[in-house]
């Protein structure tokens, strides 16, 4: 591992003191200094200077840090830069020979002997709008679209194609709980997209054979106040050389053409999506949309050493959720308006009584004024008599 560092570490034009640089937790010092280019070089083995190694499904990752700890100049009590650490990673693919002196195999390539005991890791994730990363929160509103990505990490098992056999939405992680709603059924038919008010569909083409994406229009269960939804999907893989068939497919309904279309394969494999009969009952997880009866639950733990030559499919159930649905309401509901109307109606009798009282008072005042005026008139005319 060779690391070259520019002495203008912070890009300010101020060169750092090379003695303040070190590599790894054990503080290895630099091996060479280039005064012309103002660079410092560290050279160490991958396992030296306290570096660590991590094994991922695809890579060996060696990690270490470059540390800068500024020290005060002679007779100085101040420093003008802050200490910092810069993480360093070296990635080496596990499917190749990481040695600088590769051995040419005579009976089997190196890639075929890498860890034959890895599990197949299935995942089901909610993605952001452009599918570039996992969605950081699970809050949705009606009218939103769920971007769902199914994936399997194949490790050393190359050439696998992933299918979403079925997906069921329910109020709990148990797919057989009541009520429940089938999103994907009949061995890969995205039946939710068949409804007139839905545009749910598989994304074509696939990003990879071991990944499958689809969209679902957000919905809620009628009459449910919790507004929580879990989605359980049954994922399975087949050898990539195995052609898609009615039991292993990914079909969406094309409303423009009024036809079912597969992500790959011929259209005839999707014809059973319309008839809802895609094979033997033991292979189906049918859930009737009208009656909402639960089909037979089937789950098989993935073998640590799946042998697709003797077993054509490896399957597992994966749950995503809970999804939180927020229902926006106006600032005032119907009941509030009705309450205000009732209160207004209750106030009207009181208002009428007040108006009648005022009218009576005005009438009495007018009568009293008339009596006074008549009395005065009579008093003025009496001497003439």
UniProtKB/TrEMBL annotation:
PTM remark: Proteolytically cleaved before the transmembrane segment to yield the secreted ectodomain incorporated in the zona pellucida.
Gene Ontology CC annotations of this record: egg coat; plasma membrane
GO molecular function, one term: structural constituent of egg coat
Subcellular location: Secreted, Extracellular space, Extracellular matrix; Zona pellucida; Cell membrane
Domain of life, source organism: Eukaryota
ZP domain ranges (all copies): 1-258
TM stretches of this protein: 351-374
Gene3D superfamilies xrefs: Zona pellucida, ZP-C domain, Zona pellucida, ZP-N domain
Pfam families reported for this sequence: Zona_pellucida (PF00100), ZP-N (PF23344)
Keywords assigned by UniProt, alphabetized: Cell membrane, Cleavage on pair of basic residues, Disulfide bond, Extracellular matrix, Glycoprotein, Membrane, Secreted, Signal, Transmembrane, Transmembrane helix
SMART domains: ZP (SM00241)
Membrane topology value: Single-pass type I membrane protein
An individual GO BP term: egg coat formation
Entry note about domains: The ZP domain is involved in the polymerization of the ZP proteins to form the zona pellucida.
PANTHER family given in the database record: ZONA PELLUCIDA SPERM-BINDING PROTEIN 3
UniProt record similarity statement: Belongs to the ZP domain family. ZPC subfamily.
Function: Component of the zona pellucida, an extracellular matrix surrounding oocytes which mediates sperm binding, induction of the acrosome reaction and prevents post-fertilization polyspermy. The zona pellucida is composed of 3 to 4 glycoproteins, ZP1, ZP2, ZP3, and ZP4. ZP3 is essential for sperm binding and zona matrix formation.
Protein name: Zona pellucida sperm-binding protein 3
Species of the source: Alligator mississippiensis
Upper taxonomic lineage: Eukaryota, Metazoa, Chordata, Craniata, Vertebrata
């Amino acid at each position: 591992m060779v690391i070259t560092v520019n002495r203008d570490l912070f890009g300010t034009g101020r060169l750092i003191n090379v003695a303040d640089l070190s590599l790894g937790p054990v503080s290895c010092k630099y091996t060479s200094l280039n005064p012309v280019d103002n660079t410092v070089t560290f050279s160490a083995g991958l396992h030296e200077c306290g570096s660590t190694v991590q094994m991922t499904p695809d890579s060996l990752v060696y990690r270490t840090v470059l540390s800068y700890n500024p020290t005060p100049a002679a007779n100085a009590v101040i420093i003008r830069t802050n200490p910092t650490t810069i993480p360093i990673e070296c990635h080496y693919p596990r499917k190749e020979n990481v040695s600088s002196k590769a051995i040419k195999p005579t009976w089997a390539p190196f890639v075929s002997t890498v860890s034959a005991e890895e599990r197949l890791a299935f995942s089901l994730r909610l993605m952001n709008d452009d599918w570039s990363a996992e969605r950081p929160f699970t809050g949705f509103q009606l009218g939103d679209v769920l971007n769902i990505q199914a994936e399997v990490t194949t490790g050393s098992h190359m050439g696998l194609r992933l299918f979403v056999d079925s997906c069921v939405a329910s109020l709990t992680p148990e797919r057989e709980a009541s009520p429940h709603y089938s999103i994907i059924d009949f061995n890969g038919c995205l039946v939710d997209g068949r409804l007139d008010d839905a545009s749910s569909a598989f994304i074509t083409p696939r990003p990879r054979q071991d990944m499958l994406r689809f969209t679902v229009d957000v919905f809620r269960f009628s009459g449910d106040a919790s507004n929580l939804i879990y989605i359980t999907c049954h994922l399975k893989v087949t050898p990539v050389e195995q052609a898609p068939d009615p039991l292993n497919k990914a079909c969406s309904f094309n409303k423009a053409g009024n036809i079912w279309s597969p992500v790959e394969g011929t259209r005839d494999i999707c014809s059973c999506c319309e008839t809802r009969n895609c094979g033997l009952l033991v292979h189906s997880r049918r859930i009737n949309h009208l009656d909402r009866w639960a089909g037979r639950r089937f789950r098989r733990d993935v073998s640590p050493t799946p042998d697709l030559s003797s077993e054509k499919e490896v399957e597992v159930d994966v749950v995503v959720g809970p999804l939180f649905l927020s229902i926006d309401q106006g600032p005032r509901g119907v009941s509030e308006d009705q309450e205000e109307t009732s209160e207004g109606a209750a106030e009207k009798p009181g208002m009428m009584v007040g108006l009648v009282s005022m009218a009576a008072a005005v009438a009495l005042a007018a009568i009293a004024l008339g009596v006074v005026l008549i009395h005065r008139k009579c008093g003025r005319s009496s001497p003439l008599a």
